[in-house]
Amino acid sequence: MKIMKMVVEKIETKFDQEKVIEEFEDLTKDGGRIQEETLKKILEQNGGTEYLEQWGLNGRTDPQTFKNCVPIVTHNDLEPYIQRIADGDLSPILTGKPVETISLSSGTTQGKPKFVPFNDELMESTMQIFKTSFAFRNREFPIGNGKALQFIYSSKQFKTKGGLSAGTATTNVYRNAQFKKTMKAMCTPCCSPDEVIFGPDFHQSLYCHLLCGLIFRDEVQVVSSTFAHSIVHAFRTFEQVWEALVVDIREGVLSSRVTVPSIRLAMSKLLKPDPELADTIYKKCSRLSNWYGLIPELFPNTRYIYGIMTGSMEPYLKKLRHYAGELSLLSADYGSSEGWVGVNVNPKLPPELVTYAVLPNIGYFEFIPIGGNLNGMEQANSPVGLTEVKLGEEYEIVFTNFAGLYRYRLGDVVKIKGFHNGTPELQFVCRSNLLLSINIDKNTEKDLQLAVEAAAKSLVDEKLEVVDFTSHVNVSADPGRYVIFWELSGEATDEMLQDCCNCLDRSFIDAGYVSSRKVNAIGALELRIVKRGTFHKILDHFVGLGGAVSQFKTPRCVGPKNSSLLQILSSNVAETYVSSAFC
């Protein structure tokens, strides 16, 4: 019996790369049929719920009836139902089976997290995405038995009024037994013990993640985190604490800055005096020029760096490439707190060009054509199915999943870049609701990023960089104006920053913005320089609300309802510059 159990466990933990790819190829060859089967399965499981019964499906599961009867919704429409579930209502409200776990969205966009249901089917989808992505990645960048330096952090979990476990989506994944089993099967177990990942203080957890990476430096084959921001943040921190880390390794004693007893105990089992390793790290760090190529110097057997690098993460790529040297940056897969969408099956593409092949069996997908008007995504544009999208066109994603979200507007705009067999390959464009707009102007997150990049070019000669940035539409001014917040790596002259401010204003090339600025229907852009560490305060604020560092995204446009973030930004302004570009 014991031998049989060992054989079963060995079969379970063996990762068959070619089998996973073969299954993916089969799934995507007949995307239309798989989509119909997936919708049928979702509706058969959940057709008797309070939410679906009201729309008169009467047991029908075909796509046309579903689209005719069930309305397209946003989170606001479903929030009362989800709240009842969180409050302990056990009746079948959104799903046939009871929901036992709630995921929290990052909350960095609207200022407060959203509740979304999390269940076993979503966990299975997550593991399918992870395995598929790894199979394609490992075919191009094969790794052996090693470890991953993963900058992952769990948020505080709590119980809802109804007794359900609630935490960020990443926390729900990390705490699931399947996660660790899958990581081990894929030869990328985390360097750090659970006590570090689930520690209550992310500053202490980050310090110990770095220390664990150094202890296992020759075994590290992948450096990763959920988002590129977390990796950049980790190595910015390394620049500040590397000498303390060297002392810990030399003496075999953990720094007093780590005070959590469970973390200290776990680290004491790993940390032994190693003067030779300490000397190696000290010499490597001392020889580096401005920390260029830091990651491969510290972890010589690293094959690649992995994390989500699209959308709001793109501004961090320049710094990440600086730390990475010649190492490849591989963008992770496409999903959200609500569920997964697609997988990166072309890992050799640089992050700026990465596409995601939709997995047709993890949900039912619809696409609202944009037609060049981001604000015009009303129902005049009828959604099309997965196999009806057109190459080169932009759409907003609507999806239906196994966790109680039906015809749900995800709020993401994507572009169809190609097809993998019968499923589309999507490129993320922007969030549909992240718009800078006052009059007839419409500037997206991407427009803001391009403007910041253009204006920041003049800083390079002074060896300065924009550490982070965000924006705000000040409609209390008359006329309303754009306000851009920058945190810089050092001091710049007033003349230089005034030029940057003017360049920012000119770099928003949207016709509505330019014409409005010329007639003063939109006021002069303001560039506000904030004190060093301001964006770290925003991160601390987010974590203090129960968020996980792994899930943090700097909000690129701070809305008027996000008063706490506006307060942090406003109270840390060091200098303000007003554009004279259209005078």
List keywords for this structure.
disordered N terminus, 583 residues, globular, 39% helix, 3 domains
User: pLDDT under 50 segments (min length 5)?
Assistant: 1-12, 373-379
Number of helices: 21
Instruction: Provide the spatial order of strands within the biggest beta sheet.
Output: 9-10-11-16-15-14-12-13
Report on the biggest sheet.
8 strands, antiparallel
For the termini, the CA-CA separation is: 84 Å
Overall spatial form: globular
Radius of gyration from the alpha-carbon trace, in angstroms: 25 Å
* Count of separate structural domains: 3
Task: Tell me, rounded to a whole number, the average pLDDT.
Answer: 86
Q: Approximately how much helix is present in the residues?
A: 25-40%
Q: Tell me the number of strands.
A: 20
Q: Structural class of the helix and strand makeup?
A: alpha+beta
| Strand percent estimate | 15-25%
Domain GH3 middle: 356-431
InterPro entries: GH3, GH3_C, GH3_M
Pfam families: GH3 (PF03321), GH3_C (PF23572), GH3_M (PF23571)
Family: Belongs to the IAA-amido conjugating enzyme family.
Which secondary structure elements does this structure contain, and how are they paired or packed?
Layout: H1 2-13, H2 17-29, H3 31-46, H4 50-53, H5 63-69, H6 75-86, E1 101-104, E2 115-118, H7 120-140, E3 147-150, E4 158-159, E5 165-168, H8 169-174, H9 177-185, H10 194-197, H11 202-215, E6 220-227, H12 228-251, H13 261-268, H14 275-287, H15 294-298, E7 304-308, H16 317-324, E8 328-331, E9 334-336, E10 339-343, E11 356-358, E12 364-369, E13 384-385, E14 394-400, E15 408-420, E16 423-431, H17 445-456, E17 466-474, E18 481-488, H18 494-507, H19 511-518, E19 526-530, H20 534-544, H21 563-571, E20 573-578
Parallel strand pairs: 1-5, 3-6, 6-7, 7-8, 18-19
Antiparallel strand pairs: 1-2, 4-5, 9-10, 10-11, 11-16, 12-13, 12-14, 14-15, 15-16, 17-18, 19-20
Helix pairs in contact: 2-7, 11-12, 12-14, 12-16, 17-18
